[in-house]
Amino acid sequence: MSRSIALWGVLVAALALLPFLLPNYFLHIAIQVLLWGLIYTAWSMMGRFGLVSLGHGAFMGVGAYTSALLWNLYGITPWLGIPAGVVLTVLLALVIGYPCFHLRIIGHYFALVTLALSQVVALAIVAARDVTGGSLGMTPRAVGESVYALQFPDRTQFYFISLGLWLVGLAIRHWANSGMRSAALEAIGEDETAAAAVGIHVMREKLRVTMISAAITAVGGSMFVQYLMYVNPETVSGVGVSLQIVFASIAGGMYGTLGPTIGSLLTLSLTEGLRIAFGTNFIGAANTIYGILLILFIIFMPRGLLGLIQKLIAKRPQRARPTAAPARP
Fold first, then answer.
1. Given 190, 197, 238, 323, which is the most exposed site by the fewest CB atoms within 10 A?
2. What is the pLDDT of residue 232?
């Protein structure tokens, strides 16, 4: 336990030094890795227990657009707009989750329901073009450097905000998926009937983890908009975003604490590499490669890159400790 705490301390200290060592471009990538890592971590809270949601693009979109619209239309600070987006997102998760869990819609049926939710939210954003800007997107009203508006020209501030949110997300994941809560969700994932028979409140546990996951996703989406100062349906909502979240979480390793963040680093490296290599000549390449890699990961590495690393470490031969020579009489 003490060794684990020490390793986490070293990791946090190293991450805190990054903005003073990285060039501006790589700092930009690091901020996105942390924010997407937060969102992927939120999805993994459900995915690792068999709750395969394809609706996190909806949760991210609601959170992102709520804070941006409240700021543009009414001048409400993001410090209040982001919590408002979280509340709306949690209500949306409750509205879609309660009937599904009450009617015991599970497996691929639940995935299809959430997939439809993601597309409905994306289409609603496009349809309300007079307010949201439609498919062209919108830009939050810029006021320069302002703590009230949560706008900072220097990326260092956003890096530390993103780092703090990422650490809080990991802590919530650890709390929500530890002890009896984890055992209850694992039992539900294996057999809901058997879990209910031993006294587990199935609906309450599933609703709890769904609403927590949705809330964290909304925070990540809101901060993503605040950082980029631009939002459109394709980047924060819809089926494409939902599938990207699923791919990255599985590829990195949804069963490990750092797995989703490794997935974030993988997907962003892939996207940036393709953009640099092909420019606009191969639009849609990232999504095509995501699909191919997702199939390969599910077949050959179901526990993701982190699981593969842990497996290789476990197989590493241990050096035999010298034994004391027997005492002579």
1. 323
2. 92
Domain boundaries of the chain, sorted by first residue: 29-238
Judge whether 165 and 38 are in contact, CB under 8 Å: yes
Helix (H) or strand (E) holding 21: none
| Percentage of the chain lying above the pLDDT 90 cut | 57
Query: 138 pairs with which residues across the strands?
Result: 231
Identify the H or E element spanning 310.
Answer: helix 304-315
Q: How far apart are CA 250 and CA 88, in angstroms?
A: 27
For 243, residues 6+ apart whose C-beta sits below 8 A from its C-beta are 54, 287, 290, 291
Give the CA distances from residue 234 to residues 38, 42, 148, 171, in Å, rounded to whole numbers and listed in that order.
Answer: 19, 20, 28, 29
Task: Please give the backbone phi and psi of residue 249, each rounded to the nearest 5 degrees, phi first.
Answer: -65, -40
What pLDDT band is residue 6 in, cutting at 50, 70 and 90? confident
Output the CA angle 44-99-222, nearest 5 degrees. Answer: 45
pLDDT tens by residue, 208-239 = 999 999 999 999 999 999 999 999 998 899 88
**Phi-psi category of 139—alpha, beta or left, where left has phi over 0 and alpha has psi -120 to 50?**
beta
